[in-house]
Structures are given as structure tokens and as C-alpha cells.
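Amino acid chain
________________
===
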Amino acid sequence: MVFILPVFVLFITQQCVAEVTLPEPHIVMLGATGVGKSSLGNVLVGGPPECKEIEDPSEMVTQPLNCWFGVCHSATSCTKGTQYATGLFVGNGDSFTVIDTPGFGDSSGDDNILITQMVDSLKNQIKTANIFVLTMNGQSERFDTLIQQMLREVEALFGTTFWDHVIIEATHWSWDMDDVEDREEDAEAKWCASMNKEIQNHFLHVSQNFTCVFIDSWAKKGNHVNDPDEQAAFERETAILWQLTEGFGPFEFKTLEDILADLFECQEERDCLDGIIENELADLKKFTNEQTEALWIHVNTDDNLLEEHSGRLNAIEAKDTIQDSRLDSIEKKDTTQDSRLDSIETKDTTQDSRLDSIETKDLTQDSRLDSIETKDTTQDSRLDNMLPIGSIIAWAGKTKSKTELPQGWQNCDGTKILRGPMKDLLAPNLNNENRFLRGGSTDEDQAGGEDWTTQEAQIQTHTHVLHDPGHHHTYWHGKKTGDSGGGAADKASDDDDALSTTTEHTGISMKLNAKDIDCQPDSLTCAGNETRPKSMFVQYIIKICDQTC
């Protein structure tokens, strides 16, 4: 069986004087505005990290279930007074009290008032603290003057033994696996060492190294509660906080006035006979010495800070002089650049004017081109209409003309006509059969009258006349004279008789088939397997419809 311990939140003001016994141990959270004190306080008592701000902090109110300290997302602190809540540690541990102090450094600028009220509340209502959790933003290594001022006030009022009860908490330290992998190795140890060094540098009498815990309040919100890595880290870090808290004894919030009042009371009641006066005086002397030492440390620290600030101011002044010189140089350069820009702007204006003129001319040319294109389209339409459907013309072809077959035309290749008035007819096969065109009669009753009638090759019947008159030779018949046997020519004497030969025919004939005659380009006679004039191959196309078909 699980018992739920009711949790109450008290807003402490100077008017609240009711004595309340708070369960121990007491955990006091200190820190600047926005670092996550309130979120941490909520999860330490088992609630969600984010709760609504309580509108009236002057009354004791019971928050909704599992919700105690208000959380803001602005530069103004929601916690305007010191608040506390009692409950079970992380919702299931031992009873304890967690105290949420005001955030310092918010936009309202009332830090001094908040510090005074916080000290009064701690002394008069809380009375003791086991541990002070100094909350710092884990995403930063800054130790700003606001938290320094608060710590100096607490130290001045309650003594330097206050430091013996301090630990450091790094807020905004996610344990999501991706965030862990993004951080460098030993990031926690390095951050903790850096924060301890900052404290020791600003509080020279503090020499101890404070323990750091890394509790991620947002591990208890939304889908983060289902992440085993985040939950394991939350349990580990809160366990460290609880162990440290139990290890510290109670620190009593007593001021110098409180010690003197106890001494006077002791004297009046005669209880000092057993050495109480001596003990009180020793405590008073020790406290006074601590206060004096702390004040001198503060003075020395302030002197050191003044010297440091003086050196920094000198460096700033020197740097300021250099920057003035650089600014003068920049201003001169700026003046030169202004002049160049003016020149460029003037040139730009001229160019704009020229561009406007060019654009105007371009628009005029566009208008003229549109007019020409319109006229060209009209002419194309007129030319197309000039050729009736069925017209056959010669075309250089797709390869030579670098164009496609015009709309409404078809090759004369014997294929079926697909549209138009001649649909389903076969186009004349002029191209594949290498045919010429010739005129024909439109009268179908005359020979060759029907259109698209084809004719095969032929030679008209004709006659070639060859006349051979014949010929004869005359010679002399007589004696031979001077035949020396050496090959001398025969000569006839005057007395020899002249004789003649009989007329005979030569027997010459003419071939009618000249296919075997060789044909040369420059020859006047060429023979082949057809009779034709000189020609060139083209593609015949036929108009089958107009451009809209």
C-alpha cells in the first residue's frame, strides 16, 4: 500500500509569524533568476518541473496535486518571496523540507529588498538549513556579480561557516543519449572544476572544493519519463544530493544581534554560572573575528577589483583611441565610397534611361514581329487555300528540308489516305514506282481519262531508213615492165587496155537494240533499260485536306 503525503507550500512574508515545525532535513536553493531553482524544487518533492505562478503569495495556499513552485519563462522571477514545501524526497523517499529563495537579477531590479526578506525568512521561519544548493546554469560557466552579491550578503550575516554546507547544482544538464554524446568526455568534472575556481577567485578565503550534482528537472516531463537513460541519471544524481544532505548537520541562522541577545538573556536568568557566559563570549569573539576577517577580505577583494578595473579602463581607453583612429579612417573611406556611389547611381540612371529606350524599341519590334507573324500566318493560310485538295507537288523530303511533312499532306507512296475527302483511297505510288507526271483528259470516256491512271514504259513505233548505193574500183590490165623482182611497182604501158570491176554491196546493217552501248556522262549517246530525259529524284506529296483537318 502506498501512502501519499500531502504537500503544502508556504509563502513567507514579514507578516507571517506563525510557528511551524518543518520536517528535517532542510534543503535551501540559492541562485539567479531563470536558472531553474523552482523546477528543481518541484521535482525534489515528486512533482512536475513546471507549475503555474501563484497570484497571491501573501497567503498559505495548497497547490494542485503534485505542483508547488511557480515557474516563469521571462526575465522576471516568479518567486518574489521565500517559499517552502514539505513532502517526500522525489515523491517516495523520506520527509524533508525544500526552500525556494527569490531569483536575483530579474527585470524588476529589487534584489536588495529580496535579499533582506530572504535573510529575515531564513532566520525567523526556516531557522536552520542542512544544505545550500547553489544552482547554476550548466550551459554557462559565468559566475556573475548578482550571485556574488547574494553570497556575500549571506556570508556577512551568517558567517563564513555557511560555506561548509554548500554544494553546486548544474541545471539544464540533459541526460538524453544524443546530448550526452555531443558533450566532451568528463564534461561534468570539467564544469565542476571551473565553477569551484570561479568561487575561489571571488572569495579568496574559500579554499574547499564543492561537490557538484547534475539533476535534470525536465527528465520528469512528457516523453522524457520514458527514457531509461534520463531516469537512471535522475535517480543517481538525486541520490547523491540526499546522501550529502544527510551528511550535513543543521546550520543555524544566527546573526551577531542574535548572539548578543542570547548572552543578555543568559545573564538575566543567571544561567551563566556553569560557563555558559564563557562559551557565549568565545562564540561571540570567534564570530566577531570571522566577521572582521570576512570584511577585510571583502575590502581587499574590492581593492583588487578596483586595481583590476583601473587596468581594464586604461586598456579600454587605449583601445578607444585606436578605435577612434580607425573610425576616422572608416569615415574618410565612407566619404570616398559615397562619392563613388553617387557616380555609380548617376551612371545607373543613364543606363536605366538607355534600357528604357531599348525596352521601348524592343516592344515596338515585338509588335512589328507579331504583326509579321500574323501576316505570315494569314499568307500561309492563303497559300494553303490556293492549292486545292488533291494537288501533287514535288518536295525535297524530310532529310534535305530538315522539316516534317506539312499538315494536311501525305506522301505519294501508295499508302491508304487516312482523312479528308479522299479518305480510304490509296495515294498515288509515284515515289516507290519512280513515275513522272503527265497531263490527262478529265473526260472519263476518252482514252486515259480517269485521274491517277498509270502507264508503263514504252517506245513509240518508228522506222529507221538506211540507203547503201554500193561502189566500184577501176584498174589497168596490160604487161608488166621493169619487173626486177625487187618489189618494184607494176606500170602499164600506153598500149594496155583499161578495165573496171562489177558494182557490189557492203552488207552494212544497224542494230535496233542499243543496250550494250557504254554510257558516259559527257557522251551524246547513252543507253539503258528505260527511255527518259535528264531528271532528279524528289518526293511527290499530295494534299489530302486543309490545315484544320
